[in-house]
Specification:
Strand content of chain A: 15-25%
Number of domains of chain A: 2
Radius of gyration of chain A: 20 Å
Largest sheet of chain A: 9 strands, mixed
CATH architecture of the largest domain in chain A: Alpha-Beta Barrel
Structural class of chain A: alpha/beta
Number of helices of chain A: 14
Oligomer: homodimer
Helix content of chain A: 25-40%
Chain lengths: 414, 414
């Protein structure tokens, strides 16, 4: 039996940015069968009827970057210099507290937080990732889940000589879990992985047909920490290693220049912008309007909860819009539609899933949320995009469906 | 009979920043009778028992700057150049839609939004302010409510020659309304009010013993719009007019330099920082860490909903912390405690009410909120200040008391 979501403003985020005032969506199995006006999708009866109560029916949000298990460290150490934060707090905490049990527990916790906040897909990278992946599948979220690769002993990979082999074994295991779980390989960064490791990890990701993720140009001092640069930019260095292509996701890209953006655009890499993390850690401000103008597929990410401290893409959209306006001293940049695209279809494009998710169109997977518009802060609603980016809170999310399955109902986890 | 709030982490924001793990507060009439551990405030029975359920008991938030009726224009016109936004959208909408009825209706609406978000005091400025003031009193919020003064025909003041007289008449009328309503005079700005008007308005405010508010140095181009500057800074000009003292509130102060800050500090003026409004309108970034270092009493404000677009101080705290970190390229500036102080006791100090509100201490007015900590985004809680600034949402506010009266109960307006 179908699921019918009706009586809402349908914000499709499709190519034409179609908005339907008296909108509805019909779902069959895990796909969108039809969408449009209530008349358009009427017809045969439905097994589940979801009344949007005049709210907004829209695609689920895509969190392009996080480290789900790190919710265990939420608020553990804030307002500190980066080296003190990492070396005196986060690294020791990871060494003592990260194990299969904690990864499983806190990944599930983060997934519950994300589902409640309207995030239907996350792109993750951490260690013991098979335990994260299983927890993701159990909670019902859609996920790209990357096993971490780093040239130091890491949780679950005591011998860094085994980091690629561990990642490959993970990918093979994780592929069996669920159609909602896409394994990935996540190299931590070019300053914690040698050129050799980066090349080998990308090669393994190519062989397995999975997304390759890497933190790139997060901090101003990064080039000094990479031995083989020889005056090249970090992006140029990665390009020379041959690891940049449409299946490579570059996270952060704070300190990239025009030449870097040209390379990223030419190679078709996705980019994830994490405005709140970059601000809170004082990493810098990524040239996002410039990247978008260069045609780069750029999505939004929350980053892990140790550096944000939550999984809230409504807040990231609002912050991204406002941050780039004041930096450019131009209130027109990063308008509401642009930010909403980054959190939906553009984020999906960045992680290579835009043919299946990120907008509401017949044939796409049924990852759909309903945003309640009845609270005072959502009234009046002169413009639906402004409402979603500048006024909506993640707590306004009332219904969440992933893969055609109801995961949040009337604001509560099912 | 007393009200007893118990079973929460008590965050007092008092001078010693006292935090009590198993905290409680006893309220008698409209004042705090005692606070401390549950044992400390035990004793005689209470008429109303409020179980904080392990959440956070803290002072209500102080919204240092807003234009409450402007919620009617929420999302009306966003992502536009300032002149187009003002001249083609906001000013025409104000001319056609602002009247006693709409001011009353949308002020009440904004007050409901603020109360639900844990704001127990707002500092407002608009036209037809007597109608705003009455609506504020009806909703139960505590407010400093300023009648607007501007050298142009304005809603309710068709003849600008009457702007001071109208404000004085308003103050006399509003003084009779409620002990929770403190009238004020709000000069729009030094570029829309002549030096003569500014002086006369301040004189009237002094005579009446009320707060004088004015937008100052919001945009970079402001000096060019003020005829009589003669090379002086806007702040120096206002100082020369004799209008700066401890009962003058300077809103925005984005484009102030060291010399300006010295003047502001010497005169004891309060300052309100509106980070989200300043970002969204691309006004600039106020030197807040520098103002705080100079000992200036600085609070946080949301500004009106046409330029933000909501009344959410939890979001403003988070944004203020992150914005100033990335601008200073220093993750240590504007730590969580500093931001929480700005939203409570420092904001109260800026608007001249710190002896009565802004912290939880015996004898202070009972403006208290409870923040629920049971949702996934608030778990774990390694640090209560981090939790409140970097993870809490306004939707976590479960109880709100103003003047000892319950206004929000279990997240719903009473």
């Amino acid at each position: 039996m179908d699921i019918l979501i009706y009586n809402g403003v349908l914000v499709t985020m499709d190519d034409d940015l179609t908005v339907v005032e008296d909108g509805a969506v019909r779902i069959r199995d895990n796909e969108i069968l039809s969408c449009g006006t209530m008349d358009d999708v009427a017809g045969t009866e439905a097994g589940i009827l979801i009344d949007a109560r005049g709210g907004i029916i829209m695609p689920g949000l895509v969190n392009g970057h996080t480290h789900t298990p790190m919710s265990m460290f939420r608020g553990l150490a804030d307002d500190l210099p980066l080296d003190k934060w990492l070396n005196e707090h986060i690294f020791p905490a990871e060494a003592s507290q990260v194990n299969p049990g904690s990864v499983s527990k806190w990944t599930a916790h983060s997934c519950r937080e994300m589902l409640l906040a309207g995030i239907t897909t996350c792109c993750d990278g951490y260690f013991h990732e098979i335990h994260a992946a299983r927890a993701m599948v159990d909670t019902g979220i859609r996920a790209v889940a990357g096993q971490g690769v780093i040239d130091f002993p890491a949780p679950g990979v005591g011998d860094p000589g085994q980091n690629i082999a561990s990642a490959v074994a993970y990918v093979n295991e994780a592929k069996k879990l669920s159609s909602r779980l896409m394994p990935s390989i996540f190299c931590h960064s070019p300053y914690t992985c040698s050129g050799k490791t980066l090349k080998a990890a990308k090669e393994a990701a190519r062989d397995a047909g999975v997304l390759f993720q890497v933190h790139v140009s997060e901090s101003r001092g990064e080039p000094e920490m990479i031995p083989g640069l020889n005056g090249r930019s970090v992006v140029a260095y990665l390009d020379d290693l041959g690891i940049l292509d449409a299946s490579t996701l570059l996270v952060h890209c704070v300190w990239v220049d025009e030449a870097d953006m040209k390379i990223i655009g030419k190679r078709g890499c996705g980019v994830i912008h994490c405005p709140e993390s970059n601000m809170k850690l004082a990493s810098g401000i990524a040239p996002v309007p410039e990247m978008l103008a260069a045609g780069i597929a750029a999505g939004l990410g929350t980053d892990g909860c140790a550096s944000n401290n939550d999984h809230d893409l409504f807040a990231e959209m609002d912050t991204a819009a406002k941050l780039h306006k004041v930096v450019a001293m131009d209130p027109c940049v990063m308008d509401a539609v642009t930010c909403l695209k980054m959190a939906t279809i553009d984020g999906a494009r960045a992680i290579g899933l835009d043919r299946r998710i990120g907008s509401i169109s017949p044939g796409k997977l049924a990852d759909i949320i309903v945003v309640d518009t009845g609270k005072p802060h959502m009234i009046p609603m002169h413009n639906v995009y402004s409402g979603l980016v500048y006024a909506a809170k993640s707590s306004d999310v009332s219904w969440v469906l992933v893969d055609g399955i109801v995961r949040v109902k009337a604001g509560e986890l099912v």
